[in-house]
Fold:
Amino acid sequence: MRRKNRVVAFAILCLCLGFSSSVNSAAQSQDDAALLHAREIVWRAWFAGDTNTLKELVPPETIVMSGGEEQWKHKSDVLRTSAEFHARGGKLTHLEFRRTEVQHFGNVAIMWSTYALETEVDGKRSPDSGRVTEIFVWRDGHWTNPGWHTDAGK
Structure:
């Protein structure tokens, strides 16, 4: 009888954990939709030279590391390099994130992705691809992007 009670209790526990897990997955998916949208906005804003959007989504404490570059960048560098790219007539012609995994830690989300993009400057198209690790923080009712690291991933 005791064994039967333990088996029933274990089955109920498994059902509850499964239900809880599926509820959390549904909530996670909704959170991730807003997060993925915020990431898309940041990338597209940078390539479009949209400094107003970048000022809102990239906070003052931002740190950026890019493969092949010795110096780390901060918010002012992000705004400057975006404006320079746009001023040269640069535009984004293709952007895709081929694989993304997200980890949530309270108001912080870390996104691990592979990406492929293509830019055009002076009629010359340039493909690029690699890996990116991005940090997002939920602040004042929206996601902000205070840091990322890109590399060639080859």
Summary: The longest strand covers residues 124-139. The CA atoms of residues 64 and 70 lie 11 Å apart. The longest helix spans residues 2-48. The chain has a mean pLDDT of 85.
